[in-house]
Inverse folding.
């Protein structure tokens, strides 16, 4: 990252507003939360004028425990001003190539697959049922993603904080060795659009009987000044799993 | 209403009721797509038929516990149609029809202690010890010095089972057998 002009930053782990996504549950500490990712704070650093930033930080997610999940894990997250998702794919190829080289593995060569095509191949007929969509995804699509793959073009209702262009969200996920390793956005820069999405996911959480997380007003206040940028978060524990063939995240963590 | 299990309770060995039958969980994995709800992928083994079912449950879904229990019992005898077992503490006896013991009945020897599985109060199957010992009642004579790797011959055991054994085994020898794989393990010195 340093060789490619990225500046390392550190943002607080203990935050007031941890995440706005419907299906992310933060670990609470008193009145505050441990961050689920450094996304909001790093965007405020972009608003303050830095152009290429990265950080490696522990992240925490409640209720996520399994062979590919751990309540605490390590994230590498980076942002690039003036770039889109295509440039982030180049960054990923370069970075993963070097990581593979370090453990004497051939550098991964990524194929690009559109979500719409993958779902159609799996025989999915979209009825607007989100649970049905995810069932097809985990039962039929994900098991096929064994080759290094950039999956792009998500439906708008899975945009999170990415911008929507036409009928797809401009974001991608990285798959290596069958593991989802990262998630990238071309960032949405309109504060009003973001506020609407935050309100929607807060409502969805309330409808599901879950407490909505507080809105990050500091982020919304500066988003209007944020330059066009793209950002990505990569799970380091899973990257190590993918490169070493570990089958359980516990094998790559000290517990 | 019996107890139910949440997806966070899922673990191998959990006994649950699915579509009106008892299943044992033999595999579970937490899965969560990038921006989606969490699910738990499972494999469930039917405790009556042994067939395996794959099911995926959304976090928050629940499964009722299967009304099953194991009871340690001693095998007594069979009358051809029924196999008779006894609880060693209460001396209560029960009979299980031969058809329900397919694959296990020919390893039952008198006084063998097994686990009898009850589903909704009815005995449905038995789990044998992993290893049993039984005497060879018939096999072709042993071939001295023949140590060819993997060469086997059938041998009939006192318990009723016929298994493949190495060529050097003779009539009257006592063998240790793995009941899960129906394979010969070793000779037992008498």
């Amino acid at each position: 990252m340093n060789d490619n002009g990225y500046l390392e930053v550190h943002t607080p782990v203990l935050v007031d507003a941890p995440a706005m996504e419907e299906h992310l549950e933060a670990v609470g500490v008193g009145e505050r939360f441990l961050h689920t990712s450094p996304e909001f704070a790093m965007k405020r650093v972009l608003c303050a004028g830095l152009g290429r930033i990265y950080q490696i930080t522990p992240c925490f997610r409640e209720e996520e425990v399994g062979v590919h999940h751990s309540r605490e894990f390590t994230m590498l997250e980076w942002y690039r001003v003036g770039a889109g998702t295509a440039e982030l794919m180049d960054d990923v190829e370069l970075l993963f190539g070097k990581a593979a080289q370090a453990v004497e593995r051939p550098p991964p060569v990524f194929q690009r697959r559109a979500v719409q095509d993958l779902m159609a191949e799996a025989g999915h007929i979209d009825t607007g049922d989100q649970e049905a969509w995810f069932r097809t995804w985990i039962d039929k699509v994900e098991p096929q993603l064994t080759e290094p793959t950039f999956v792009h073009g998500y439906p708008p209702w899975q945009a999170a904080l990415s911008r929507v262009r036409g009928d797809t969200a401009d974001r991608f996920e990285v798959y290596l060795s069958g593991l989802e390793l990262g998630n990238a956005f071309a960032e949405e820069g309109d504060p009003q659009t973001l506020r609407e999405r935050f309100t929607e996911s807060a409502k969805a959480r309330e409808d599901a009987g879950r407490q909505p997380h507080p809105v990050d007003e500091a982020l919304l206040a500066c988003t209007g000044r944020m330059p066009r940028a793209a950002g990505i978060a990569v799970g380091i524990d899973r990257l190590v799993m993918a490169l070493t063939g570990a089958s359980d995240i516990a094998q790559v963590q000290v517990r | 209403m019996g107890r139910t299990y949440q997806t966070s309770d899922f673990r191998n060995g959990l006994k649950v009721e699915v579509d009106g039958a008892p299943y044992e969980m033999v595999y579970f994995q937490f899965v969560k797509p990038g921006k989606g709800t969490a699910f738990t992928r499972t494999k469930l083994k039917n405790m009556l038929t042994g067939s395996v079912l794959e099911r995926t449950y959304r976090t928050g879904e629940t499964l009722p516990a299967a009304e099953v229990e194991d009871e340690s019992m001693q095998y007594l005898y069979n009358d051809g149609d029924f196999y008779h077992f006894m609880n060693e503490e209460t001396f209560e006896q029960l009979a299980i029809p031969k058809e329900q013991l397919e694959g296990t009945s020919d390893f039952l020897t008198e006084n063998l202690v097994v686990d009898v599985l009850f589903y909704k109060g009815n005995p449905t199957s038995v789990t044998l010890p992993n290893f049993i010992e039984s005497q060879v009642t018939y096999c072709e004579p042993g071939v001295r010095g023949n140590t060819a790797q993997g060469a086997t011959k059938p041998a009939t055991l006192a318990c009723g089972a016929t298994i493949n054994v190495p060529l050097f085994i003779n009539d009257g020898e006592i063998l240790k057998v793995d009941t899960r794989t129906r394979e010969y393990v070793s000779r037992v010195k008498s």
